[in-house]
C-alpha cells in the first residue's frame, strides 16, 4: 500500500532559515570520503552527496520499525515485534485533577469534532538520532480547551497504559511503570504540541503509541508519552519517569539543546536515520523561533 | 585423523570461515538497505559484539585445554585473537569516520569527556600491540616469557570492553551483564589450579590421551 504524502505544512516552513543553510563540514574532511569508499554500502553515496541540511521524510519502515517504546521491550525493533496484538480500542482516557469536570472519556468521544491535521516535524531522540515524520494529529491546546482546566492548573501530566499482559516490556522493571510525562501549561498549549493519532496519513501503528501520543518537536522524544490513558492537570510539577530513573541525565524540560550535553554523550550532533554521517543539532531542534520565548531568562543548563 | 590434523584441517578452516560471517552479515544487511534505523549503530553493535565474543573465546582456550587435554587447540588462539582485533579496528574506524567525521579535536574532546569512550579507546590501544606481536617472529624476538607477560593485556582489554558496553547503554544493562558474567566465569576457571603435568584430564574428550597424536 502506498503512502499518501500531503504535508499541509512544508518542512521548509517549519525550519529555522539561517540554520537551514548551515553546511556540513565533514565533506571537507578529505579522508572521510576515502575511508568511506572502502565500505560497500549502498546508502553511502547518496549520503555523501546529499546535503545534510535537507529535511527529507524518514521512510515509513524506519518510522514504524525503529522505536523506543520500552513497554514493548528495550530493543528498537521490539515494539514493532511485540505490539502486533495490542488493542487500541476500546480505549478510555481519564481526565483528572484541576479540571472543570473530572471524567473518564471514551477516546472517540474525547476526539470527536476535531479533524486531525498533518504536521511534518523533526524528531530528535536524546540518544542522538533523528527522523523527519509526517504526523497526523490534533493540537493539544484544542483538546485542553474542551477539557476546561481550572485556573490552578499549571502543569499537565500524562500517563501511559499499564498492562503487562499487553505490554510485555512492563514485566521487567526497566523503568518505574506506568510511564509518566508532563508539560508546563504554556508548553502543553503551544501550537506545535500535537496529540498524535496517525502518521503518514494512516492510523497510528501500535508501536508508535496508538491510539494517542504526544509530540513536542522541540523536545527530546522521550517527553512524548505514548498510548495515553490519563491526563491530570496539576498545580505542581509532576514527576516524570526518565527523570526519576536518572535525574542527572534526564530533566523535566528535555528541550533539544546542542550546547547542553548528556552526561555520557554529546548532544551537539545527531544522526538522521538513514544517513551515515552526523549533522549539527539545532537549538530547540530548529524550532527556536516558535518556542524560545517560553524559556526566556531560564538557565537551560540547570533546567535541562 | 590425528588430533593435530583435525585441528589444522577442520577446526582452523571452520574458524576462518566463522571469522568472516559477521562481516558478510554486515555487508548483506547494510548493502541491501535492510537495516531499520541507525545503520552506524547497527554496524557498531555487530562489530562490538563480535570483538567481545572473540576475546572471550580466546580466554576460554586455556580452560578448555585444561579440561579436555586438547592442548593442540592453542594453534587456533591467534586466529581468534586477530579476528577480535580486525573487528575492533572496524568498530573504531566507524566511530572515527561516521561519528566524528575524523575531526581530531572532537575525538580528543569526546575521549576526554566521556569515560565509556575513553575505555573503548583504551581497549583498542591495548589490542594493537597484541595484534602486532602476534607473529612467530615477534614471539622469538620478545622471548616467550616477555611475550606472555605482554599478552596478559588481553584480560585488561576484555574487561575494558565489557565496562565500555556497560557505560554506554541507556538503561537496560541485560546484555552487558551477560558478557560480564561470561568474563567472570572464564577468569574464575583460571583460578582453578593447573593440573600437574602428566596427570590425565578428567574428560571424555581425552580418551586415548597421547597415543592419538
Please, could you describe this protein's structure?
- The complex is a heterodimer of chains A (304) and B (213).
- In chain A, 18% of the residues lie in helices and 21% in strands.
- Mean pLDDT of chain A is 87; it is low at 1-8 and 10-50.
- Chain A starts with 16 loop residues before the first helix and ends in a 13-residue tail after the last helix.
- Chain A has a single domain (11-295), classed as Sulfite Oxidase, Chain A, domain 2 (Alpha-Beta Complex), CATH 3.90.420.10.
- In chain A, the strands form two sheets. In chain A, strands 3, 4, 7, 8, 9, 11 and 12 form a seven-stranded mixed beta sheet that branches.
- With 304 residues, chain A is of the alpha+beta class.
- Chain B is mostly helical and 213 residues long.
- Chain B has one domain (3-192).
- Chain B is 75% helix and 0% strand.
- Chain B has helices at 3-31, 39-68, 77-99, 104-113, 115-132, 136-142, 144-151, 153-168, 174-191.
- In chain B, helix 1 (3-31) runs antiparallel to helix 2 and helix 8 runs antiparallel to helix 9.
- The longest helix of chain B is centred in the N-terminal third of the chain and has 30 residues, at 39-68.
- The chains are: A alpha+beta (304), B mainly alpha (213).
- The interface between A and B is medium-sized, with 37 and 29 residues.
Entry keywords:
heterodimer; A: Sulfite Oxidase, Chain A, domain 2; 7-stranded mixed β-sheet; 12 strands; globular; B: 213 residues; mainly alpha; 0% strand; disordered C terminus
Amino acid at each position: 500500500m502506498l503512502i499518501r504524502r500531503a504535508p499541509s505544512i512544508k518542512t521548509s516552513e517549519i525550519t529555522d532559515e539561517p540554520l537551514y543553510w548551515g553546511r556540513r563540514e565533514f565533506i571537507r574532511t578529505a579522508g572521510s570520503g576515502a575511508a568511506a569508499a572502502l565500505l560497500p554500502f549502498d546508502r553511502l553515496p547518496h549520503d555523501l552527496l546529499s546535503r545534510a541540511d535537507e529535511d527529507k521524510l524518514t521512510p515509513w519502515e524506519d518510522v514504524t520499525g525503529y522505536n523506543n517504546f520500552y513497554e514493548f521491550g528495550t530493543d528498537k525493533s521490539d515494539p514493532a515485534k511485540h505490539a502486533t496484538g495490542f488493542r487500541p480500542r476500546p480505549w478510555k482516557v481519564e481526565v483528572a485533577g484541576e479540571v472543570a469536570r473530572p471524567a473518564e472519556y471514551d477516546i472517540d468521544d474525547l476526539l470527536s469534532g476535531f479533524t486531525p491535521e498533518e504536521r511534518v516535524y523533526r524528531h530528535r531522540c536524546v540518544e542522538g538520532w533523528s527522523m523527519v515524520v509526517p504526523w497526523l494529529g490534533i493540537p493539544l491546546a484544542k483538546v485542553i480547551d474542551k477539557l476546561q482546566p481550572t485556573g490552578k492548573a499549571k502543569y499537565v501530566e500524562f500517563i501511559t497504559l499499564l498492562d503487562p499482559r499487553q505490554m510485555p516490556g512492563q514485566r521487567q522493571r526497566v523503568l518505574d511503570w506506568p510511564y509518566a510525562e508532563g508539560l508546563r501549561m504554556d508548553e502543553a498549549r503551544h501550537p506545535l504540541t500535537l496529540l498524535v493519532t496517525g502518521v503518514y496519513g494512516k492510523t497510528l501503528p501500535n508501536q508508535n503509541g496508538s491510539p494517542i501520543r504526544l509530540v513536542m518537536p522541540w523536545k527530546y522524544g522521550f517527553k512524548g508519552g505514548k498510548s495515553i490513558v490519563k491526563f491530570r492537570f496539576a498545580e505542581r510539577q509532576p514527576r516524570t519517569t526518565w527523570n526519576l530513573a536518572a535525574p542527572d541525565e534526564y530533566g523535566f524540560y528535555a528541550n533539544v539543546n546542542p550546547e547542553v550535553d548528556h552526561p555520557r554523550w554529546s548532544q551537539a550532533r545527531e544522526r538522521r536515520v538513514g544517513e551515515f554521517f552526523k549533522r549539527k543539532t539545532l537549538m530547540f531542534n530548529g524550532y527556536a523561533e516558535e518556542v524560545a520565548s517560553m524559556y526566556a531568562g531560564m538557565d537551560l543548563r540547570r533546567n535541562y | 585423523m590425528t588430533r593435530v590434523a583435525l585441528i589444522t584441517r577442520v577446526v582452523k578452516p571452520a574458524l576462518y570461515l566463522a571469522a568472516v560471517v559477521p562481516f558478510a552479515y554486515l555487508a548483506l544487511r547494510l548493502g541491501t538497505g535492510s537495516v531499520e534505523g541507525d545503520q552506524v549503530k547497527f554496524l557498531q553493535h555487530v562489530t562490538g559484539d563480535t570483538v567481545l565474543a572473540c576475546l572471550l573465546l580466546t580466554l576460554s582456550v586455556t580452560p578448555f585445554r585444561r579440561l579436555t587435554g586438547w592442548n593442540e587447540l592453542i594453534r587456533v588462539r591467534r586466529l581468534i585473537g586477530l579476528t577480535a582485533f580486525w573487528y575492533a579496528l572496524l568498530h573504531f574506524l566507524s566511530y572515527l569516520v561516521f561519528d566524528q567525521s575524523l575531526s581530531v579535536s572532537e575525538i580528543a574532546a569526546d575521549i576526554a569527556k566521556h569515560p565509556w569512550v575513553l575505555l573503548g579507546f583504551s581497549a583498542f590501544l591495548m589490542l594493537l600491540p597484541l595484534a602486532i606481536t602476534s607473529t612467530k617472529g615477534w614471539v622469538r624476538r620478545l622471548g616467550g616469557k616477555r611475550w606472555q607477560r605482554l599478552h596478559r593485556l588481553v584480560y585488561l582489554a576484555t574487561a575494558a570492553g565489557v565496562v565500555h558496553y556497560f557505560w554506554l547503554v541507556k538503561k537496560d544493562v541485560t546484555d552487558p551483564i551477560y558478557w560480564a558474567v561470561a568474563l567472570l566465569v572464564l577468569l574464575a576457571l583460571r583460578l582453578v589450579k593447573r593440573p600437574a603435568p602428566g596427570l590425565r584430564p578428567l574428560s571424555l574428550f581425552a580418551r586415548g590421551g597421547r597415543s592419538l597424536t
